[in-house]
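Hi Y.,

Following your request, here is the sequence exactly as I used it, all 418 residues.
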Amino acid sequence: MSRESEADLPGEAPLPGELSEALCAELIAFRRDLHMHPELGNQEFRTTAAIRARLEAAGLEPRVLPGGTGLICDIGTATGPKGGGASKGGAPRPMLALRADIDALPIPDAKAGVSYRSTVPDRAHACGHDVHTTTVLGAGLVLAALHREGRLPAPVRLLFQPAEEVLPGGAADAIVAGVLDGVGRIIAVHCDPRVDAGRIGLRTGAITSACDRLEVALDGPGGHTARPHLTTDLVTAVARVAADVPALLARRVDARAGLALTWGRIESGHACNVIPMHAELAGTVRCLDLAAWRDAPDLVHAAIDEVATLHGAKSEINYVRGVPPVVNDPAITELLHDAMTARRGAFSVEDTEQSLGGEDFSWYLEHVPGAMARLGVRTPGSHARLDLHRGDFDADEAAIKVGVELFTAAALLDGNRS
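Below is the corresponding structure, written out as tokens. Let me know if you'd prefer a different format.
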């Protein structure tokens, strides 16, 4: 990969905050420890304690969120010549928040041959939240050192958020708890196994999609498989709902809206010769377009009722609103671009597409401008086609240093431009 030196960048002085080899090694060890001990949403007590202990060891004062998991930690909030906490007009500066999510997924770790495989059955950091957490922690340690030296130009808040994987996401509770008080801008990263380590992906505007949860129960009188004509053939009914409802939605919504219903669970029956009385489906509804997302519940209800009624089944639908799209602010996206370019050169940034994945980072953007970057975690030269939310997901740990550099450079550039 081509890299420009910081001194070669026009109009930018070299940025302080280089990572030592010792800190890089420590952060990799920290990430591996988190990876070995994954915790689900709102259960991240060990993770929270580990983050808190390291920040306190650096002389910082983290504050655990009211639920007992997740925390925030402010750096450089004191006013004065070295505090970095006052704007040019003397008023307190709104902080830049660096956000990480700390929870894991309820799936088994399927990796083989690594020493840091999950030690918790059916739990895994299969979405890279351990990497997100470690990069924000590392940035906090670097920025705290700069603050002690009087070189942090503006205050920064570290935000370690629980329960991102639990719809509608832990961000909503964190906002109620006041994590955005005094915050003017917010940034985050998300691991991307399609982008090489050493690079990030950026996009102005929507970078993720809306995501809702759907649960459907179908009921009928049951009966003998020898006489399906005398009852509701519930297995056929649930199969038709699973197959036909997504197809119906595709014909009732503008294709450009990107509305997609995908099932993740289907259950019915216990014996081969008994037509069951109950069946269940569960899945997600994702949408690229905000207007179509608003109409989605009514459209989904109507399509399910239509197919279920055709097959004589009674339906009960639980449609749970999730998260809107993450819409990156142009100015904050430019900040991330400039920060990455300052650290790693122009070729370290690539364009990225809007994905159908959901992210509760979007709730913060309802209150303050911000942006999310895709952090490359694929080993350069690798042809492996790994994806998120798979038990064999892993990250090239070189991405940790890249994420720390991105957050640190963004904080310094943002502070100097305020």
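Residues 290-310 form the longest helix (21 residues).

Thanks again,
Q.
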